[in-house]
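Quick question: who can interpret this fold?

. . .
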Amino acid sequence: MSGLTTEAIAAIHAACFTMPRPWSAKEFEDLLSMKEVFFVAGPNGAFALGRAVLDEAELLTIAVPPDAQGQGYGRTTLRAYEDAARAHGAETSFLEVAATNAPAISLYRSEGYSESGLRKNYYTAPDSSKYDALIFAKRLKPPVSD
């Protein structure tokens, strides 16, 4: 995990998210103990966590520390996640994103993800209000051979 502890990963996640709620170090530890879950370290503390089952991958979370946002690290990390998903045999990638997260939605669309569904009232904000999740999918092209 490129030298990041689960505590450091949880701290980055907490700096990036209030909705969905940030995950604890224990939750990251539990996820990372699963054989189908993989971790991708991006630049400047960015990271992604994915899960691959058969020919499908799910982007569980992606985070870029607030002081590094807006510099392309999310895009670089998303592409690294897709490479890792392909390496795990995935042909399709799925993800869920809060319908209110315009920057993330813009990134996913610009990287070829298409909206494929909606989960009504999926996320709960700190004030207990509910927000929808959009489901996005992308067909992963095979890696280019040299």
Notes: The CA atoms of residues 118 and 134 lie 5 Å apart. The helical segments are 6-16, 25-32, 73-87, 102-110. The two ends are 27 Å apart (CA to CA).
